[in-house]
Write the structure tokens for this entry.
Amino acid sequence: MSPDGTLVDPYGGQEDLKAGVLRCVGEPKRRFEEDALRILRLVRFYSVLGFSAEKETARAAHEARGLLARVAHERVYAEMNKLLLGENVGETLLTFPDILGVPIPEISPCVGFDQCNYHHCFDVWGHTARAVAAVPPKRELRWTMLFHDLGKPLCRTFDEQGVGHFYGHTAISARMAEDIMARLHFEKVLRDRIRAQLACFDDMFRPERAAIHKEMARFGVETVQNLLYTKQADNAAKTPAGLERAQAPWHEAQKIYDELISEGACCSIHELKISGEDLAALGYRGREIGAVLARLLDEVAAEKLPNKPEALQARAVRLWRSGYARHTIKENETH
């Protein structure tokens, strides 16, 4: 700003903003050498703002990408969190995999890796980029989809027809995710959420009320909602042929999930209309109380038992008479 209040713009920044162009001031190579994080920041702006990268700036960023290896992991992590939430994240991941593969080298083997499977029309990285873009912009979802297929290049096998398979790839991907999260210093809360999503990523269940209710009781309400998001995103990033048929059960599952939420369905022991004190009054002691509460929740989630005080009390009495809790604890001790 000049003394008379006039905006001074010697590098044409206003025009670049209007045109949606990302451009380094001066010589791009020198700017990136001064602070290599600017390379990743360029990628982040590409994702968040949807701007294009000026030709020389983009070329210099690709050429200087190795400098990112010197950047502190915490700074990389901060940029990645913002990058992954961008509206243009899918195109960004497809455009800059070589740059992203420096701080996260597990990405590189996925780029161009042919899945050799009729369910997939994209290579592993092409599928991953589209799956990331297909989930809502929540960090645990975007990171989960970024991680979910990293293990595929390590475990591809072929059947007699030459079709590629990736048995056990989710478990391998989960282990790789643990390494990345430790290296980039993910905070514990986010790490636990991503770990929970990868743990149930391959779960299959019918779009039926009892099946979905049991999933919600097993993994938690939020984790199951995220699971439905990841299922739909994973399908959306595969071969378009047959997509509507593949998505139909998950759309139905989402509908049932929403109904259960609106009804206030019981999905945890704390939501049962019976307490540990109530069970103690019936004669249960110590670990017996936890065992019976878990059993009651299982039956409520399976839609076999209403979450009503009278019904739960009566069922607890029958379990007491059958010796269920005592037998269960003894069996667990022998195992």
Observations:
- The domain at 104-265 is CATH 1.10.3210 (Hypothetical protein af1432).
- Strands lie at 21-22, 52-53, 157-158, 164-165.
- The two ends are 76 Å apart (CA to CA).
